[in-house]
Automatic annotation (TrEMBL):
Residues 1-21 form the signal peptide. GO terms for molecular function: triacylglycerol lipase activity. Transmembrane segments: none annotated. GO terms for biological process: antibiotic biosynthetic process; lipid catabolic process; monocarboxylic acid biosynthetic process. Keywords: Hydrolase, Signal. It comes from Penicillium angulare. Coiled coil: none annotated. The keyword tRNA-binding does not apply. This is Uncharacterized protein. InterPro entries: AB_hydrolase_fold, Lipase_secreted. Pfam families: LIP.
Length: 431
């Protein structure tokens, strides 16, 4: 290679990394601060906004070229799990050659009680000490290349209240309000079709949004909501993953929930064994990968006085019932597509079967796909082709039948339809 080309390339990469490095993590970035007069704002109102670099590192490192025309972030008002005004952040991405009538809210599974794992930050800069949600960002890239506008919400809020269902659902609904209100000034249609999608932790936020929508944001009209690797019952998830490879999530989930409720913050402080408290918080406050590595195969209950029985105390019991269990706050109005591995080893299939049966008995419209093959991790990819195709149908305005259907599938390899949906490059990389 010609020496001057080498020089300009390394200059370019220097320039590029200095741009990325100048993005501050939320814990150090005053833009993320909540205004004192937060309760003066209406739910969904924008408090401040900023344009960010269109070179989103999370998308640049995908095995595909992703079309991005503009990226704007909004700090908006939402409602926390106690019903109090709180702020959160949403990132709205406009693709090149966009179809302004199509809008997808994609909730990524950040699965961390650390605010520096928020998608608004990690989508901008691949911070190697933190996380990188490759499969989710792949779907976001594919959606943008279809010309859809995409928004992704820091649904855990400014305090990273991981698994706090009420907070997460409210934040998704209010970010939708904010995007529908502000988007048209950026070129989004005044009346777009819009849908939600999320897998695992992202399905938690999306499902809570779907369940709370009728009571909390009755004016919204989602064309559809796609939920994969559903986690309807956090108590059951905690019992299931404890002592296993995903046990770190139990630490983060317990901490994330506790942050949302003063009585549970107090309970955690009182009930952790003092000599083990520092280790608990170090795992619980880590990024997804850090918590997974540091918490793997640990018995989270052994950090508590009384062990697992401590979680039967009134405080954790009432809090997990209130904000960790789906099925008690309403019935989704929007049609749902739900995909789930029968052998999901993070959230038992029976919890999802029960939730779907309950929603269906109350008039929901659900296509439920149970995959006899695969695990919690592999179903994210295995189910993605059907999920994408279903979202695409909804954004095109195709109607769904009323009532519920359950389909049993055995997905052993990625459906070839994925090549046209995701683009050949991404499909090849995922296959
Ligand atoms: C990455 O995140 C860590 C933890 O929040 C932070 O200390 C560090 O400054 C970040 N690095 C960059 C390049 O932003
Ligand atoms: C909140 O306070 C800021 C700074 O004083 C002010 O600019 C803003 O208008 C206030 N917002 C509302 C909704 O009252
Ligand atoms: C919601 O949108 C669907 C199409 O996506 C439409 O058929 C329906 O009439 C809308 N409902 C309301 C209340 O606007
Ligand atoms: C949630 O899981 C816990 C623990 O397995 C169980 O006791 C509880 O009944 C479940 N809740 C629902 C609504 O299924
Ligand atoms: C509980 O909080 C007090 C006061 O902040 C602190 O000194 C103590 O270490 C905490 N206990 C545990 C188990 O975290
Ligand atoms: C968790 O990490 C964040 C950001 O790195 C930091 O600001 C916060 O103080 C930490 N909290 C605990 C309890 O360690
Ligand atoms: C977790 O594993 C430990 C041994 O490492 C065992 O003593 C404990 O009973 C297990 N706890 C549960 C809830 O399975
Ligand atoms: C803990 O706080 C939540 C939220 O205010 C409340 O619903 C729950 O009943 C409380 N639990 C107890 C045991 O007081
Ligand atoms: C798929 O699942 C079915 C039913 O459990 C099983 O018979 C089959 O061997 C599985 N195939 C693969 C490739 O895992």
């Amino acid at each position: 290679m010609h020496p001057s080309l080498v020089t300009s390339l390394s200059l370019l990469s220097l320039l590029f990394s200095s741009v990325a490095a100048s993005v501050k993590p939320p814990s150090l970035d005053p833009w993320y601060s909540q205004p004192r007069n937060i309760s003066e704002y209406e739910a969904g109102a924008v408090i401040r906004s900023r344009s960010v670099n269109t070179k989103l590192e999370a998308l640049l490192t995908l095995p595909m070229d992703v079309s991005v025309k503009s990226v704007v972030q909004y700090l908006f008002r939402t409602t926390d799990s106690l019903g109090k005004a709180a702020a959160s952040v949403v990132t709205l991405i406009e693709p090149r050659n966009s179809d302004p009538t199509k809008l997808l809210g994609y909730q990524v599974y950040y699965d961390s009680a650390n605010v520096d794992s928020s998608p608004s930050y990690l989508i901008q800069t691949r911070n190697e000490t933190l996380d990188f949600y490759e499969p989710d960002f792949g779907m976001i890239g594919a959606a943008l290349n279809k010309g859809w506008w995409v928004y992704t919400t820091d649904y855990e809020g400014l305090d990273a209240q991981y698994t706090a269902g009420l907070q997460s659902g409210h934040a998704v609904l209010d970010s939708t309000r904010a995007v529908l209100k502000e988007g048209p000034s950026k070129g989004l249609s005044n009346n777009p079709r819009y849908a939600l999608w999320g897998y695992s932790g992202g399905s938690l936020a999306s499902a809570w949004a779907a369940e709370l929508q009728h009571s909390y944001a009755p004016e919204l009209n989602f064309s559809g909501v796609t939920l994969g690797g559903t986690v309807p019952n956090i108590t059951s998830v905690t019992q299931t993953i404890n002592n296993g490879s995903s046990a770190g999530l139990a630490f983060s989930g317990t901490f994330g929930t506790a942050k949302a409720f003063p009585n549970m913050t107090e309970w955690l402080n009182q009930t952790l064994i003092p000599s083990k408290s520092a280790e608990f918080y170090s795992i619980a406050n880590g990024s997804y990968y850090y918590a997974n590595a540091a918490g793997a195969n640990k018995d989270m209950f052994s950090f508590f006085k009384g062990g697992e029985r401590a979680f039967l105390d009134p405080v954790p019991r009432t809090v997990f019932q209130l904000s960790g269990t789906l099925g008690f706050h309403g019935v989704p109005v929007a049609p749902l597509f739900v995909y789930k591995a029968v052998k999901d080893q993070v959230s038992p299939i029976k919890d999802t079967d029960k939730l779907i049966a309950s929603y269906c008995a109350q008039g929901a419209r659900i296509q439920y796909q149970r995959d006899l093959n695969g695990s919690h991790a592999s179903e994210g990819l295995a189910g993605s082709v059907d999920a994408f195709s279903w979202v695409s149908d909804r954004l095109s305005g195709n109607s769904v039948n009323s009532g519920c259907t359950t389909k049993v599938v055995e997905i052993v390899s990625l459906d070839p339809k994925g090549a046209s949906l995701f683009g050949k490059k991404l499909y090849a990389a995922l296959s």
